[in-house]
Amino acid sequence: MEIKFCKNRINLIHSFGISRSSNDYYDIIYIYILDGDIIARGEAAPSKRYNESVELILSVLNKGLTIPENCNSRDHLWNFLKPQLKGISSLEAAVNMAVWDWGAQKEKVPLFNMFGFKDEILPKTSYTIAIGNLNELDERLEESEQCSILKVKLGTPDNDKEIIRIIRKKTDKLIRIDANEGWDYEMAKNMAFWLADMNVEFIEQPFSALNLKDTKRLKSISPLPLIADENSISSNDLNGLVDCFDGINIKLMKCGSFDEALKMIDLAKKLELKIMLGCMVESSVGITAAAHLSSACDFIDLDGNLLIKDDPYNGVKIEDGHLKLQSLKAGLGLNLKQKKFELL
Ligand SMILES: [Mg+2]
Questions:
Q1: pTM above 0.85, yes or no
Q2: Are strands 299-300 and 322-324 parallel, antiparallel or unpaired?
């Protein structure tokens, strides 16, 4: 068995703007576990919001990861590798994906099977309309055609209502709002009531993650449910969110492993919090990995791979707006798009 890694740049079809940043590309890291005929894969999409970067990840990987001798169990491999990853969540997520992919390929079953989930029709995913030029909204809506739910990024200085008005002139599709910590209390209160008449399903992260006081106030009056994203990193956060939010957004890049994501799903159900499954801008490796958890979640936002123009892999697809995994393939279910070489 061998572990390899490589850096790859994924370029966006259009600039990706949210309340705090705009990007034309993201650098990601692929992790590969090679074992006989098995190539198991994982992806790290580090986020500056959580003080992670490709440089930080490479500073760990360049020193080399040690693999246990005679490793036959997934838990053994993960418990051996995890302490070497220095608590970098996106790197942990990548290595953990590869470990689970390896385990499922050895068992010759699709990954969701390992979680006890069945082969069923998966939920629909939303398609993100990022913050950008208002004149280009029509084009973005045309590109969202394969999805019947829109996730609209708000938190602009003064265009939030105009963005929704323009979208509503074109489509009555269900809208989910993500303010990415961009509002203050008066703005959020005003928007929550205004959006409630616009076929909007929920509002994600209206305030700074530090401002739970206003979040709790807003929850007590908001006609729309509030979903925690920047406030919901791991299962340790959930008990503290019950009075402030109606649901949580789970991302592998934040929580660092399938093991932790499954723990969050269980705890959220106990606490009666709705569960959203989200992503960073990622290629089909990370998005397909997350999709294996989708049957246990209420709201799916796995569209990072749809927003890039040079995805090296094919994995989860979209059929009639629903996610569709390659359920006859073992592991994550990925193919290289061009059969020339694996990126390692
Ligand atoms: Mg979000």
A1: yes
A2: unpaired
